[in-house]
Recover the amino acids of this structure.
């Protein structure tokens, strides 16, 4: 059994050119199948899946019940028609999805590839490739399976790949074959290759591979650098040969396509609960009517047997009651609306499309539109309370600019004027002229010419500094034409550093696995590359060991300052402290820093060490740990060279967005891997931290006790000593119940900054409560130096204890865990690859679009969904409960009030489209207004629009409507005749009258509920009413009666009934009486106790007529005078100019004003000045009322 | 979406800037403001008031006499007779006398009414075969199973019309007599046809294809319903075209009432001689052929003589309902106006 061999597979054995051997293991072949069905299995499998849904199963049970003649009160088609419709719609959707999957599978499976079979290369389809085959790839071809690179057209068995399909990164990556196999360049040699690979079993780790090649009695270690994974594209390489290790579904790509965790929204869960409640309610009603039937049968019906003899069943009145119970369950089943789930899906799909289509979330520079990757979470976007944001690439652009450096205790990069005052760098500041260097990158800008002078003077420290930058990295150069270099860097920091070195005369020109060629001040120098001690998150540094042309062996190391400082030679003490100061200065300006160091190595020492390295790198288990130990050993006693500072540019509109989301009561926590200073600075520059905050708590304790103490102190500070001491002892138990009280009383603004190592302690169970308390008391929270795991833990913590909707936004692989943990994950389709986007639920290009996603799309989605649900339950209750009332008049015999056609079509035809139109297009306020007044977002967070209370109210309204719709015609029918005196007070007329009243009442009601009457709404509402009458007259026409008299017994009723004035009087009365109460309630709510939304709506009307004010008032804002007199804004502008030169002092103070005024204010990005203008108008208008 | 991909150029993925996709469809956003809602309420109150008054005045122009004859007059002995199983089949005729104080002007309608008779029980309502009643030969010979246990008689002959509804056909008949000032009895002429809907008489009910046969021959091979005295083709001895399934009384009966208390049209006054203007005041009697037993289910039988308005008989429900609604709306409107005047204007402001 292949399946079994899969689950047991601990190690994989693959032998090249030996199909018989490989077949023994039943490895998966290269055919992929992501489609679920084929033509024959589609129907049974799809139906099976559909009936696993509770709602569908419920209706199936009902259908079966209806087939039992004794209890069938309705003909089965009343259930069959809607059920089939729902099933067919879903099946069509599933089938199309599956068909497209099948098509893409086919396309992939039929790709051609060259396979070495019996000594010659043959073209084979991908699906016919097996594990152990040797295949040949050509330039720009997709890699067909996970293969071990054997040889390539390039020297040293190098080849280049692009991994866009795997991780979205478009930069080239290099892979290198084992040198022992790299000369297997032609078919005859490959035929004889009979190496055996033993490696790890299939897994989904894209960046890891461990295995060993056994060939000719030797063992060779294999790692990820020798693997070409399926989905990569071969680039810049004419051809290569590889041995298939994993094929088909076992490739790492396919293993990564695992089913993502299905997220459910709050409303979903609530809906399921409500459906259960309704079900219980249904059972209750059925039971009441069933018991009624028992009583009625025994007291009254016994006397009626002359005219209607009992059948055998009825001799037992209790059994008759039991059957009646089921009959009523069938009749009343429409309280659980069958079309609910389908409609909700349609709505969500529609809302997702609106997100995809939104031009205001489209970034034209990168040509990226927003994408709703999941269609099930839209309305939850309107309820977000916590946003967890990554910093790099999310708040910042992830474009790195080498801006400053400290070399040997001297800072370069600042510009001074003639009075030795630091100048602000603007566009006008003169750039350094790099024309002396023909290879320089013209886009590189640097303003301090003293550094160039130092390079030209051949200052050894400066030279060594740039040499390090040019040597110690993993950048790939590409020289398209002579002198035109393009660097493919793994990280933008590295690219910035290498580019800097290039411009300062240390041009990195070419690399081979064993050499690096630089062009140092115009002359080519080749270094022998002895080892790369690569970067990882734990080491936080990377080193290279090179031998320079003079034969000296040198280790160059760059890394995080703390890490480097720990490993410095003691003699560097002084330099270290100077550099350390510089580093703090850099960090204070929001720059990303790296410390650089080098070390001369003794030849013999290196040889010994190299052996250890070789050994460690062939170990299969714990290879990485062992390598770390070996690396650690040599990276000691370093000599400090200096430090670099790279500027991380903020994305557009970030401060405004954060301010705006803050006004919507959304708490933003920044979780970043950056160091404290950098993170805090970014916090300042994006307005999360402000100088006018009462206190910024920094938690950076190293032990549990310290952290606890710091958290306590901070909390005490906020709450005042007395309250904490009172609450202190019991805080673990009732801290959360007090929360709301606490939060209300805090007027002052606080911020919390917590370090990664402190966070590790604070997240422990005994401290997490106090951390959460404190964090929620603060306006802003910044966690720095956090690991991806901790990010997820923080999200989890809030999710667990706050019962709030969380949203995580990030762009990199390190955010994936957080994105997956949060209720909603948002990926920035930026530059750090696609992993975050792939794991996310929504993706777009810029952080600032978050504002629109939440405040506009989320808010609308939530609003629409809630209104939709309220109305949906209302209309079904109004429709169904009429039968309940009728039960008391028809001897609990389960006689229906309506024509069965009406019952069949009510939910799926007569009332479905208007409510869908409302759910798709309704807008209470326009997008501009919801952006202008972020407070409009709050009802969603408080879950106000649809909750159990709302549900109760709308079912109550439905109940009331059903009562009136039944009893008003009842009253009138007791003594009604047709105008020509023919008989009228009979069941069919009654049915048509009630049905017509109901249709009119529910359509008027949705008219009242619709806030935004687009053409579609008109079409659907009027259309539904028209359609009702059209179908009514058709179903009751002569022609159709003659076809099947039995199924259309209502012939002529509509004609006779609706031609009567009295019937229309009844309908009018019913409509008025049903609608007036809800009209009164809405009026009271809107005009006497208006919510913010209503105010906005009404305001918009007022605005149209009177918007003239003096121009002076327009441009003026509240609080500005105070700022000037207090001098705060002066200081602010100084600070801001010092912090980040790009930041406009004006805009920042504008934002602060906005926040200070605590008024309803706009935070619309500068694109729309027109809006801004009107917003100012807004704030001035409301000023006098303050 | 597929179309979007095919767009050339650097902005290939740019969404369309259409009003629909950008959710900027032109729309009307109605607002419930005091300026619209309060006038609407007053207007509705006025409309309902007018309708209510109009209806009330109309109703008051009608006249109606209801006569419960279950045990009235000489009918008490018939009532007793029907109680008794042994004498149930015997015919019984009784008389009820009554006085009309004010003359009935215009068209006068004669109804019979039943109380506590459940024509709206599910099994009862279903117990009929519309295919048979529309004259399908196949259904005539093989009635639908819904008709059980009134589908076939004990000899296995199919019953026409089958089912419980037809079986319980109301079979009392009435003769109205007027004793004028002279005291001579004058039979009041009643039109006994034209009392059904046109659609029922011509569409929903039809006799089986006759060709050259008599109606009796068409119905050959079928049995009359159990409780019937005459077969369906002999229901109206006077008018041969009023027999079979298209008999007016049968059609009226077969249109099932929605509630247990109902009345059905029996006849319309024929404006002849004495009765050109309607029913004159004076003494009247009704001779009743008392056949329909109601004592089993504590039912009551009545006759109703009434004149009509355009919306029915003496129906006070609608006028009163309209008047009550009107006053309630007016009350609400006044309260809302006061409330709005006092508090509402403040709510408009943006602060709070």
């Amino acid at each position: 059994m292949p399946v079994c061999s899969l689950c047991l597979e601990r190690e994989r054995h693959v032998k090249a050119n030996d199909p018989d051997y490989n077949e023994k293991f039943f490895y998966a072949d290269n055919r992929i199948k992501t489609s679920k069905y084929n033509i024959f299995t589609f129907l049974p499998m799809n139906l099976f899946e559909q009936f696993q849904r509770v709602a569908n199963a419920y209706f199936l049970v009902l259908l079966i019940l209806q087939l039992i003649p004794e209890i069938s009160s309705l003909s089965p088609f009343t259930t069959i028609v809607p059920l089939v419709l729902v099933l067919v719609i879903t099946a069509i959707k599933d089938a199309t999805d599956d068909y497209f999957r099948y098509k893409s599978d086919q396309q992939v499976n039929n790709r051609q590839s060259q396979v070495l079979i019996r000594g010659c290369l043959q073209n084979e389809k991908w699906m016919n490739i097996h594990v152990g085959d040797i295949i040949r790839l050509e330039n720009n071809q997709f890699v067909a399976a996970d293969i071990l690179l054997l040889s390539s057209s390039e020297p040293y068995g190098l080849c280049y790949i692009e991994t866009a399909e795997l991780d979205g990164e478009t930069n080239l990556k290099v892979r290198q074959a084992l040198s022992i196999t790299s000369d297997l360049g032609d078919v005859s040699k490959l035929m004889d290759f009979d190496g055996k690979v033993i490696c790890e079993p299939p897994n989904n780790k894209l960046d890891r591979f461990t295995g060993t090649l056994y060939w000719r009695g030797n063992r060779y270690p294999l790692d990820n650098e020798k693997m070409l994974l399926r989905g990569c594209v071969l680039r810049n390489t004419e051809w290569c040969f590889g041995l298939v290790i994993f094929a088909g579904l076992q490739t790492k790509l396919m293993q990564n396509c695992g089913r993502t965790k299905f997220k459910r929204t709050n409303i979903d869960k609530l809906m399921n609960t409500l459906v259960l409640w309704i079900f219980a309610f249904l059972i209750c009603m059925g039971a009441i009517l069933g018991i009624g039937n028992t009583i009625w049968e025994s007291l009254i019906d016994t006397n009626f047997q002359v005219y209607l003899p009992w059948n055998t069943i009825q001799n037992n009145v209790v059994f008759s009651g039991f059957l009646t119970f089921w009959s009523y369950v069938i009749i009343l089943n429409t309280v659980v609306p069958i079309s609910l789930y389908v409609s909700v899906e349609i709505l969500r799909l529609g809302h997702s499309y609106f997100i995809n289509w939104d031009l205001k979330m489209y970034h034209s520079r990168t040509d990226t539109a927003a994408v709703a990757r999941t269609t099930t979470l839209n309305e939850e976007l309107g309820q977000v309370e916590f946003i967890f944001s990554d910093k790099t690439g999310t708040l910042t652009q992830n474009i790195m600019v080498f801006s400053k450096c400290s070399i040997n205790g001297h800072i370069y990069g600042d510009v001074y004027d003639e009075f030795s005052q630091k100048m602000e760098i603007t566009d006008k500041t003169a750039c350094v002229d790099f024309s002396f260097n023909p290879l320089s990158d013209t886009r590189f800008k640097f303003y301090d010419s003293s550094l160039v002078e130092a390079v030209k003077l051949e200052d050894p420290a400066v030279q060594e500094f740039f040499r390090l930058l040019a040597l110690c990295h993993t950048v790939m150069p590409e020289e398209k034409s002579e002198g035109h270099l393009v660097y493919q860097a793994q990280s933008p920091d590295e690219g910035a550093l290498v580019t800097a070195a290039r411009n300062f005369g240390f041009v990195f020109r070419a690399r081979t696995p064993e050499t690096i060629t630089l062009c140092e001040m115009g002359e080519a120098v080749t270094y022998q590359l002895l080892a790369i001690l690569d970067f990882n998150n734990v080491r936080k540094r990377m080193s290279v060991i090179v031998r320079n042309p003079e034969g000296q062996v040198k280790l160059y190391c760059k890394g995080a300052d703390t890490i480097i400082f720990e490993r410095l030679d003691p003699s560097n003490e002084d330099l270290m402290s100077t550099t350390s100061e510089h580093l703090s200065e850099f960090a204070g300006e929001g720059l990303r820093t790296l410390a650089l160091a080098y070390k001369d190595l003794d030849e013999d020492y290196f040889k010994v060490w190299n052996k250890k390295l070789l050994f460690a790198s062939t170990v299969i288990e714990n290879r990485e740990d062992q390598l770390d130990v070996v690396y650690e050993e040599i990276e000691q006693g370093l000599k400090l060279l200096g430090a670099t500072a790279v500027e991380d540019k903020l994305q557009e509109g970030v401060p405004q967005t954060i301010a705006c989301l803050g006004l919507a009561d959304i708490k933003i926590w920044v979780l970043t891997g950056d160091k404290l200073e950098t993170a805090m600075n970014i916090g300042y520059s994006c307005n999360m931290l402000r100088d006018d905050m009462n206190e910024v708590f920094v938690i950076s304790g190293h032990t549990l006790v310290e952290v606890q103490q710091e958290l306590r102190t901070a909390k005490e500070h906020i709450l005042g000593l007395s309250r904490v001491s009172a609450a202190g002892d019991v805080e673990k138990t009732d801290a959360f119940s007090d929360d709301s009280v606490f939060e209300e009383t805090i007027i002052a603004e606080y911020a919390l900054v917590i370090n990664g190592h402190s966070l590790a302690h604070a997240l422990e169970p005994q401290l997490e409560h106090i951390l959460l308390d404190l964090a929620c008391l603060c306006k802003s929270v910044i966690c720095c130096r956090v690991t991806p795991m901790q990010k997820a833990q923080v999200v989890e913590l809030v999710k667990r204890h706050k019962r709030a909707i969380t949203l995580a936004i990030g762009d990199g692989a390190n955010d994936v865990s957080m994105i997956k943990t949060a209720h909603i994950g948002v990926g920035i389709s930026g530059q750090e690859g696609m992993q975050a986007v792939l794991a996310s639920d929504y993706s777009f290009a810029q952080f600032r679009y978050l504002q629109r996603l939440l405040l506009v799309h989320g808010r609308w989605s939530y609003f629409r969904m809630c209104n939709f649900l309220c109305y949906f339950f209302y209309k079904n209750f109004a429709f169904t409960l009429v039968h309940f009332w009728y039960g008391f008049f028809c001897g609990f015999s389960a006689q229906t009030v309506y024509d069965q056609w009406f019952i069949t079509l009510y939910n799926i035809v007569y009332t479905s489209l208007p409510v869908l139109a409302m759910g798709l297009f309704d807008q209470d306020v326009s997008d501009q207004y919801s952006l202008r007044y972020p407070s409009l977002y709050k009802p969603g967070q408080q879950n106000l629009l649809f909750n159990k209370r709302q549900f109760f109210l709308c079912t109550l309204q439905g109940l009331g409507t059903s009562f009136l719709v039944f009893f008003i015609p009842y009253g009138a029918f007791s003594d009604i005749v047709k105008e020509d005196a023919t008989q009228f007070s009979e069941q069919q007329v009654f049915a048509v009258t009630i049905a017509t009243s109901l249709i009119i009442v529910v359509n008027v009601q949705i008219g009242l509920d619709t806030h935004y009457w687009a053409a579609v709404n008109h079409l659907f509402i009027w259309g539904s009413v028209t359609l009702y009458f059209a179908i009514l007259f058709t179903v009751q026409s002569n022609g159709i009666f003659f076809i099947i008299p039995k199924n259309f017994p209502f012939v002529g009723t509509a004609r006779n009934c609706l031609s009567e004035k009295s019937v229309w009087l009844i309908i009018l009365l019913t409509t008025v009486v049903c609608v007036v109460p809800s009209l009164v309630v809405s009026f009271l709510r809107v005009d006497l106790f208006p919510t913010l939304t209503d105010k906005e709506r009404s305001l918009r009307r007022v605005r149209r007529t009177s918007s003239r004010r003096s121009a002076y008032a327009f441009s003026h804002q509240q609080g500005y005078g105070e700022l000037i007199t207090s001098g705060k804004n002066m200081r602010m502008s100084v600070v801001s100019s010092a912090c980040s030169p790009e930041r406009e002092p004006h805009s920042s103070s504008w934002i602060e004003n906005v926040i200070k005024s605590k008024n309803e204010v706009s935070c619309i990005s500068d694109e729309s000045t027109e809006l801004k203008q009107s917003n100012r108008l807004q704030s001035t208008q409301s000023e006098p009322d303050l | 979406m597929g179309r979007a991909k095919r767009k050339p150029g650097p902005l290939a993925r740019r969404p369309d800037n259409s009003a629909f996709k950008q959710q900027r469809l032109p729309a009307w956003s109605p607002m419930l403001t005091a300026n619209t809602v309060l006038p609407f309420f007053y207007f509705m109150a006025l409309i309902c008031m007018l309708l209510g008054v109009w209806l009330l005045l109309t109703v008051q122009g009608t006249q109606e006499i209801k006569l419960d004859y279950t045990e009235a007059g000489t009918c008490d002995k018939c009532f007793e007779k029907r109680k008794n199983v042994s004498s149930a089949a015997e015919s019984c005729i009784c008389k009820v006398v009554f006085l009309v104080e004010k003359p009935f002007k215009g068209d006068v309608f004669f109804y019979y009414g039943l109380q506590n008779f459940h024509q709206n029980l599910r099994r009862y309502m279903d117990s009929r075969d519309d295919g048979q009643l529309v004259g399908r030969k196949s259904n005539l010979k093989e009635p639908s199973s819904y008709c059980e246990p009134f589908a076939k008689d004990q000899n296995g002959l199919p019953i026409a019309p089958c089912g419980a509804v037809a079986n319980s056909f109301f079979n009392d008949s009435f003769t109205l007599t007027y004793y004028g000032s002279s005291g001579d009895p004058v039979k009041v002429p009643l039109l006994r046809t034209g009392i059904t809907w046109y659609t029922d008489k011509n569409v929903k009910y039809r006799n089986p294809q006759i060709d050259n046969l008599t109606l009796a021959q068409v119905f050959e091979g079928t049995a009359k319903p159990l409780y019937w005295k005459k077969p369906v083709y002999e229901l109206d001895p006077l008018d041969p075209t009023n027999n079979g399934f298209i008999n007016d009384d049968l059609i009226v009966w077969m249109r099932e009432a929605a509630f247990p208390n109902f009345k059905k049209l029996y006849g319309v006054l024929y404006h002849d001689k004495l009765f050109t203007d309607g029913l004159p005041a004076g003494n009247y009697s009704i001779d009743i052929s008392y056949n329909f037993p109601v004592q089993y289910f504590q039912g009551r039988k009545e006759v109703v003589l009434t004149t009509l308005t355009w919306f029915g008989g003496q129906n006070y429900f609608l006028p009163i309902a309209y008047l009550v609604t009107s006053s309630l709306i007016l009350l609400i409107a006044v309260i809302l106006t006061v409330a709005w005047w006092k508090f509402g204007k403040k709510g408009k402001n943006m602060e709070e």
Remarks:
- Residues 1-7, 724-745, 1102-1186 of chain A have pLDDT under 50 and may be disordered.
